[in-house]
Amino acid sequence: MRSLPSGLTLPMVVTFALATGPALARDRDNAASASVLQPVSQSVPQSVPQSGVSAAHGVVEGAPGARLAGYLNFCIGNGLLPHGDTTPLLDHLIARTHAVSDDHRGDMEYAYGTAGVLHPADADGPRVTDLDIPQRRELCAHIRRKAASIMG
Q1: Residues with Cβ < 8 Å from 91, sequence gap 6 or more?
Q2: Is 29 left (phi over 0), alpha (psi -120 to 50) or beta?
Q3: Are 110 and 72 in contact (CB under 8 A)?
Q4: Is the pTM of this model over 0.90?
Q5: CA distances (Å), 19 to each of 6, 9, 141, in order?
Q6: Which of 121, 148, 151, 143 lies closest to 61 in space, CA to CA?
Q7: Is the pLDDT of residue 16 over 60?
Q8: Do residues 69 and 75 lie in contact, with contact meaning Cβ atoms separated by under 8 Å?
Q9: Do residues 40 and 47 make contact, with C-beta atoms less than 8 angstroms apart?
Q10: At residue 91, what are phi and psi to the nearest 5 degrees?
Q11: Nearest to residue 70, comparing CAs of 23, 120, 109, 15?
């Protein structure tokens, strides 16, 4: 076990860490500190413009089946689609796309969809949660229609 440098005691180290921790964590870069200082009205995300919703619809249209199942799971889990009516569709889509395997290793596309990630290749890319609630509901209705059309 390591010992403290001479002259320091454990209570002194703990006190120093507690006293200076917030100051050391602050101001890592100017951009981060500037956003903290903005008034609340400016830091709250605004709704995505309608063109953003259209882009999200396009992403859904091109999404692989397992990610579409994940989006459906996201919508059900967040109360954006009715659980009772939509879960059977989700179950069939999962079975058809093998989005959840018997060994539970999982499919990353399904995981991305369940997390609401619209562009998995871009870590900072848009998510379903970037949309306001009415836009999310609209997108989830689109996801449900797309899933139903795949299931035929």
Answers
A1: none
A2: beta
A3: no
A4: no
A5: 21, 16, 51
A6: 143
A7: no
A8: no
A9: no
A10: -60, -45
A11: 109
